[in-house]
Design a protein that fits this description.
This protein is mostly helical. The protein contains 29 helices and six strands. The strands form three sheets. The chain has a two-stranded antiparallel sheet with strand order 1-2. A two-stranded parallel ribbon has the order 3-4. The protein has a two-stranded antiparallel sheet with strand order 5-6. Helix 3 runs antiparallel to helix 4, helix 8 runs parallel beside helix 13 and helix 15 runs antiparallel to helix 18. The chain is globular. The N and C termini lie far apart (about 110 Å).
Length: about 675
């Protein structure tokens, strides 16, 4: 079987699995789990085979005209280069892990069949984006991911949080997709084709008439899809969905699509140095702002959500300095350890009975209850903090090396200003990333208080996936040398300068956070717990203790998945939580906890004016336009009422009216005759 044929099967198999799952979900529920996992696993195996056959060599291109358009043709085409085949392997691996993990995590969910089918469709759409060689076909996968995210984030539609989060995710990403679509048409008009190879050829020949405008329009869609400032606000709220969905969205689909799109069309963006500077500033603000916000979050999933936003900022920063190899290398590395972090967080939520780090910090022995999650999460957090020799160190260093190279004026694509912006923001974010990673680890696994509940050993479907993802989280960075063949032959090895800067900043962040946590622990021990009457009474609970569900509600609303996977809630002390984030951020903490009030700003600038305009339109429609409509109907209605009064049903009245009419006509005729005779 040829390589293009295998590549066609990669997105096709999950699509067929999704279709079969939707059709058989109610009639044959026993087939749902195999239909969810096996097609995705087969697609992952085929993606690996395609990558091995492509081998980092010359790109494989094949196309057939999809439909005649009369102008710019739309073609069903494949473009298999090193970037595409490696990203497809990541998508297949993470999607398979999510499907297997979900069979245990959502085993009691009545809507699991539709959930599994949507995950398969989501996977198929991302694979279509990865392999597609035509921008219109890529757009199909792009938009299917958007609608799948709407349904998956809103999986627990009974809750207001899930409904609002799904609608917000859909609307914010669509806000970016409108200029994105305009940019695609403008790009195709200048290039005369939607084919990626032809577009890149046009760019190389200097054939783009409006490179800056096109690049900025496309960046709007990328900012929405990849949750970059200022369209990033939907991603933290999307944590209202099931935890495995968060792993899929954050690690290998949706948010990765925007970064991959820019990497694939980087020459289009590099044709405008102004666009690269805008991209660099966007990346820097995203990196630093999201890292500060992560330090102030109490919900473990929201910490990871802001972490994703920041790591995507590293990727867009690498693209801003013209190095797509570093960007995609970090995308692959991040996909492995971020999927591990989210799936590990699901196990923690299962065991602790809450999303709240404050509640976890008041439990003792949680790490011993879930040793698999403890060790694998530790590995993933070390990779996130970019400590050697974990995967995140090598990929983040590749970004910093690229930024340093551009800052020194050695890049032909990007201006040195973009390099300095990315380099400074990247080093600062390295410090903050290590700080919030350390904070999460300490609060989740080093709590003090009542013993954590014991719900027994976690299912193998959950723990096995964690150890599988731990392998690339540890060793993927060691493949930097061989992977250079897939990434334009670019070197991905760290330099001494950036290694010292990045690792030194991370070490400072980790040590400082640990010292502040110890101080917070000592201070919390001196404050007596609130009396037992301060919270709901719990049978057998010690004085000064309340259920963790009550504690969690103070700052992190629990998800319905907590109730689904947990038999009971632990009892924890009401003493203040030892949170080093408050000391690190100081007065900035309350602003960072709410995302620096961006939602409130958008509400005042956009939501309220739009609602006011809608109210005005409704008033004009009801009171002005409808008045004419009502008036047009009122005249005939009044005339009908008058005529109806004459219809009495009395024959004598009708004869009298007839006689009176005849007399009137006779008199009128006589008068007219006399007038005519006199004239």
């Amino acid at each position: 079987m040829s390589t293009p044929t295998l590549a066609v099967l990669v997105p096709l198999l999950p699509f067929l699995g999704a279709l079969a799952g939707l059709l058989l979900g109610r009639t044959a529920p026993g087939f749902v789990k195999p239909l969810a996992a096996l097609p995705t696993l087969a697609a992952a195996v085929l993606a690996v085979l395609v990558a091995l056959r492509q081998g980092g060599g010359k790109a494989i291109d094949t196309a057939t005209e999809l439909t005649p358009t009369g102008s710019v043709p739309i073609e069903l085409s494949l473009h298999l280069d090193g970037f595409a085949v490696m990203v497809a392997v990541l998508v297949g691996l993470v999607a398979t892990c999510v499907q297997i993990y979900s069979t245990a995590y959502l085993r009691e969910d009545p809507r699991y069949p539709s959930y599994a089918s949507l995950v398969s469709l989501f996977t198929s759409a991302m694979l279509l984006v990865v392999y597609s060689g035509d921008l219109m076909v890529l757009l199909v996968g792009w938009e299917i991911m958007g609608i799948c995210s709407y349904f998956l984030v809103g999986h627990y539609w009974e809750t207001e949080a899930a409904r609002s989060a799904s609608l917000k995710a859909f609307l914010v990403t669509k806000l970016g997709d409108v200029p994105f679509l305009i940019g695609l048409f403008a790009l195709a008009t200048d290039a005369g084709s939607f084919r990626i190879t032809k577009i890149l050829g046009t760019v190389a020949a200097g054939g783009l008439d409006h490179p800056t405008l096109i690049a900025l329009l496309l960046l709007a869609g990328v900012a929405g899809k990849s949750a970059q400032f200022p369209l990033h606000t939907w991603l933290p709220d999307a944590m209202a969905g099931p935890t495995p969905v968060s792993a899929l969205i954050h690690a290998a689909t949706m948010v990765a699509a925007g970064v991959y799109f820019v990497a694939r069309l980087l020459p289009v963006f590099a044709a405008s140095r102004a666009a690269l500077v805008v991209l660099a500033v966007m990346a820097a603000v995203t990196m630093v702002g999201s890292a500060l916000a992560a330090l102030a979050q109490d919900d473990i999933k929201r910490v990871l959500a802001y972490s994703t936003i920041g790591q995507l900022g590293y990727m867009t920063g690498a693209l801003a300095v013209g190095d797509r190899a570093a960007a995609v290398f970090h995308l692959l590395s991040h996909g492995a350890f971020k999927a591990l972090l989210f799936l590990g967080a699901g196990v923690i939520i299962h065991a602790a009975g809450t999303n709240s780090l404050a509640a976890m910090s008041r439990m003792d022995g949680l790490a011993k209850r879930i040793p698999d999650a403890f060790w694998t999460m530790t590995i993933a957090l070390l990779a996130l903090a970019a400590f050697p020799p974990f995967a995140g160190f090598f990929s983040k260093e590749a970004v910093l090396v690229a930024a340093e190279h551009t800052a020194g004026g050695h890049s032909e694509l990007a201006p040195s200003a973009a390099g300095w912006v990315v380099l400074v923001a990247g080093v600062l974010t390295a410090l903050l990333t290590a700080a919030y990673a350390t904070r999460l680890w300490l609060m989740a696994f080093r709590g003090r208080g009542a013993a954590a509940p014991d719900h027994g050993k976690e299912p193998v479907a959950m723990t096995g996936v964690l150890w599988l993802l731990a392998v690339p989280s540890v060793g993927f960075g060691l493949l930097a040398g061989p992977l250079s063949d897939f990434f334009d032959g670019r070197e991905l090895t760290p330099s001494l300068t950036t290694s010292v800067l990045g690792t030194g900043a991370a070490a400072v962040g980790a040590v400082l956070t640990y010292a502040l946590w110890q101080r917070a622990q000592a201070q919390a021990a001196l404050i007596p717990a609130a009396p037992a009457g301060a919270g709901p009474a719990t049978a057998g609970a010690p004085a000064g203790a309340v259920p963790a569900s009550v504690v969690a509600a103070e700052s992190a609303a629990e998800s319905p998945e907590v109730a689904e996977v947990t038999h009971d809630h632990p009892v924890v002390s009401t003493a203040p939580a030892a949170d080093p984030g408050r000391a690190l951020l100081g007065p900035l903490h309350r602003h960072a906890a709410v995302g620096f009030h961006l939602d409130a700003v958008y509400d005042r600038l956009f939501v309220r004016p739009v609602r006011a305009a809608a109210a005005l339109v409704r008033f004009l429609d009801r009171e002005v336009v409808d008045s004419y409509v009502r008036g047009a109907g009122l005249g005939p209605r009044l005339l009908g009422a008058l005529v109806r009064r004459a219809q009495t049903g009395n024959v004598q009245s009708y004869l009298s009216a007839l006689l009176a009419g005849a007399v009137v006509l006779a008199i009128a005729t006589a008068v007219l005759a006399n007038v005519n005779a006199g004239s």
